[in-house]
Structures are given as structure tokens and as C-alpha cells.
Amino acid sequence: ENKINQFPEGFLWGGAVAANQCEGAWNVGGKGVSTADVATGGAVDKHREYTDGVIEGKYYPSHEAIDFYNHYKGDVALLAEMGFKCFRTSIAWTRIFPNGDEAEPNEEGLKFYDNLFDECLKYGIEPVVTISHYEMPYGLVEKYGAWRSRKLVDFYVNYCEALFTRYKDKVKYWMTFNEINAVALFPFIPAGIKLKEGENKEQVSYQAAHHQLVASAKAVKLGHEINPNSKIGCMILYPLAYPETCNPKDVQAVNEMMNTHYFFSDVHVRGYYPNYQKRYFERNNINIEMEAGDEEILKAGKVDYIGFSYYMSLVISSKPTDKNSTAGNMLGGIKNPYLEASDWGWQIDPEGLRTSLNNLYDRYQVPLFCVENGLGAIDKVEEDGSINDDYRIDYLRKHIVEMKKAVTIDGVELMGYTPWGCIDLISASTGEMKKRYGFIYVDKDNDGNGTLERSRKKSFNWYKNVIATNGEEL
Ligand code: BG6
């Protein structure tokens, strides 16, 4: 029975990873090269390089990652030991369609995810699957210019059809594109696009975004036809922003910034382009090519829920500011004097999670799913092998406290919580191993050395108890 001062019965406690950041086995089982496989290692002050294909002698962290491909049984057993109700992972598109444009899926790839999902279900862990998480077949980049091309819609929908059909009885929760709104910020990772000299970044990325939005809507419709009980969501990066001052101009600057992100969730949830975005395109001479029927497609493919990531908040000013003033906060903005930041400059703001949940729920009135949240930090292994990650426990505890307020005090409909990188994995922004998020430590360093051995951090038992008490004991 649901009590109003508790997380609801059946709340999906779990954790999240992405295929390209943990699986490794980049060229095994018929897998093709993905965009993640051409990303080199970097650091907080050193951008990852996206090479033209895989180049001998370069270090590509995804190629082995934490070798989840060969360790998944032991890893899922550890997640089960923590009492996970769900496990969010993604499918590597290139395991299913190695180049992206094949007519038939690769059986060996499909089989791998059958095994993985079976392993989860064996422990009562519900798989939550992102269809495309920051990667795509590199073949589609080379041959078609990736999401620049309308052709990608069909390739993506074919891929979805293969997944929805095959995993119909195993997977109920899906998300179409990870952090789809990132395409307007950095187009290579979410959409495989490298800009050419003189190209208008907005024109290119919003056209790609249109293709992805159409593809997503088609996928939602198809997924519902194949399994009417499936729940298919979008996934957005939620960039909570505060005005620097009470100057109305700062508030307006925040609104304008937020609209560049809300555009994506608006289309997903409401099924049409919002007026502010159409006007923005007009004012800026951005011309989105649409096909006849696109409006109907968007309307017919509204999502069931919003999955979102939340790590930090930012501060926006109407005055021109030095973009680097919060070095490492990948979303820009200026420093918030009330907040502390992680070693990578991400400003830690638990109360902002409550605000974000309310903002999203008020705006859309659909269920929300917090599918990423967590602290990237350097962990130290003590002499006796223990890892005392109290800072991580502190971060997660404070966020869960605020999430609980949103649910119990504000009445937000929240499906679940899957902290990011529940097992250490490769960082997406920097390619590092030392930026760790996990409850489970993996012995591997930035240069690729290590035994890959897994061990439980202090947060492991802490989170196990959080789940066992449904968030009562924090
Ligand atoms: C999200 C991505 O942006 O943030 C993940 O969906 C990513 O793929 C996560 O790993 C944390 O970012 P980072 O750069 O610390 O790995």
C-alpha cells in the first residue's frame, strides 16, 4: 500500500551504464566500429579527439573499457546483491547492425543482449534500455554523414524494429536517444556530426535534431504496436539554470537558454514544434527541411515518460561572461558562490534536483524517471583493499533526500532512480577511468592498465540498504 510520506511501492531503484562506456569487445562477435570507438582518451583540460576511423597507435578507451561484455554475469550478480530493481544499459547499435545499413541484424549481437537481459531477469532486475546512447555505427558517418541525412531515420527505425521484436518479452522500459538535447551543444557524440569549415552549427545540428525527433516518434509508435505494454521515453540532459541576479534581464537569459533544451522535451511530449522554436528558426534563418507527414509522425509518437540526467546546476547572466569561469562545467555558465563543485568543476546542487523534478512535472504532467545522477570522483584503494567513498555517499544521500521531497511533499510522479555508472566505467566527456561513479570499483587506470578485478566500495553496502528500506534509511 502506498504511503504518502514514502517512495511509492515498486519504485525502480537501480543504476545506469552505457554500452560503449563499459562493454569493450569493440570488434568481437561481428560488431562494427562505432563513433565511440574513434574517440581517444582525454582529460578535464584536454578534449578527446575524434579520429577519422581507428588509427594504429592511438589509445581508444572504449575498445576494452571494463570488459563488461565478458564480465556481465559477475557484474549483474553484484547489482543483484545490492538489490537492484532495474538496470539501465544501452544496446551497442554496431553489435546489431555493424555498419548501420544492413538489411538483416547480426544474430550474435542480438544473442549477447538476450543473455544479458536473461541474466538480469533471473534476479528480478528489470532492464531499462537506451536504444542509442552517445554512439552509432561509424559506417553511417562515413557513408551518409550521420544524422545530417534523412536516410538515418529508416536505419534507426529498422534497428528499433529488430530490438522491439526480439526483446518484446524481456524489455518493457525503453528510451530512444540518450540526452538528445546535447546535439545542439556538441554534435559529434549524440549525432555523429563533424562540422565543416564555414558551416552554420545551428543549421546543421537542428536539421539532425529534426531527423532524430522524427526517428524517435516513429520508434515510439512502432514499439507500442509491437508491445502495447511497453513504456517508451525520451531522455534529456536537464540543465537547471539560475539567474545570476534578480535583474529581469538575467531571468530572461535563463528562459532563453532553457528553451534551447525544452524544445526537445516539448516535441517529445507534446508532439509538435513549439512556437518559440519556430520563431527562433525564422529569426536566425535556420531552415528545417521537413517532409510531408512529419507533423503527423511527431503527433503519433508521443513518449510515455521523460527520462533525464541531472548532475549539476548552472548560473546564467545576461552580461557577457567568461565562459571558462567554471572551468570543467561542461554546460558553461558562471560560478555559483553557494555551491561546491566536483574535481571536474561540476557544481553540486541536491536541492536543484527537487526544483528540476517540479519544473519538469509541472510543465508536462507525465511520469519522470531520473536515469542519471552521481558524482565523478577519484577513489583511493586502501592497503586493506577497502574504498571509503564517503563523498559519493554524501552526494547521493543529499540528492535522494531532495528527490523524496519532490515525491512526498510535491507529489511528483517519479518512476525510479538509476545513479550513473553504478559500476566504474569510461567517462564520456574525458575518456578517463579515474573519473569514477561506481558502487563497484574496477581495477583499471587511465592508460588501460589493471586486472579488471571488481570490488565493493563503501557506497555499495550503503546503497544496498537504501534500496532494502525503499529510501527510508539514508
Ligand atoms: C551523461 C551521459 O552526460 O553524463 C553519460 O549520458 C556520461 O554517458 C555521464 O558518462 C557522466 O559524464 P562523464 O563525462 O563524467 O562520463
Helix and strand arrangement:
Layout: E1 12-16, H1 19-22, H2 68-81, E2 86-90, H3 93-96, H4 107-122, E3 126-132, H5 138-144, H6 151-166, E4 173-177, H7 188-191, H8 201-226, E5 231-237, E6 241-243, H9 248-270, H10 275-283, H11 294-300, E7 305-309, E8 314-316, H12 350-364, E9 368-372, H13 390-408, E10 414-417, E11 440-442, E12 454-456, H14 458-468
Parallel strand pairs: 1-2, 1-10, 2-3, 3-4, 4-5, 5-7, 6-8, 7-9, 9-10
Antiparallel strand pairs: 11-12
Helix pairs in contact: 2-4, 6-8, 8-11, 12-13
This protein binds 6-O-phosphono-beta-D-glucopyranose.
Residues 18, 21, 134, 178-179, 237, 309, 372, 376, 420, 427-430, 435 line the site of 6-O-phosphono-beta-D-glucopyranose (BG6).
Characterization of the model:
- One of its GO terms (cellular component) is cytosol.
- One of its GO terms (molecular function) is 6-phospho-beta-glucosidase activity.
- One of its GO terms (biological process) is carbohydrate catabolic process.
- It holds the Pfam family Glyco_hydro_1.
- The chain has 474 residues and is an alpha/beta fold.
- It has one domain: Glycosidases (TIM Barrel, Alpha-Beta Barrel).
- It has 14 helices and twelve strands.
- It has helices at residues 19-22, 68-81, 93-96, 107-122, 138-144, 151-166, 188-191, 201-226, 248-270, 275-283, 294-300, 350-364, 390-408, 458-468, and strands at 12-16, 86-90, 126-132, 173-177, 231-237, 241-243, 305-309, 314-316, 368-372, 414-417, 440-442, 454-456.
- The chain has an eight-stranded parallel β-barrel, surrounded by four helices. Strands 6-8 form a two-stranded parallel ribbon.
- Helix 13 (390-408) links the parallel strand 9 and strand 10 (414-417).
- Helix 2 (68-81) packs parallel to helix 4 (107-122).
- The chain binds 6-O-phosphono-beta-D-glucopyranose.
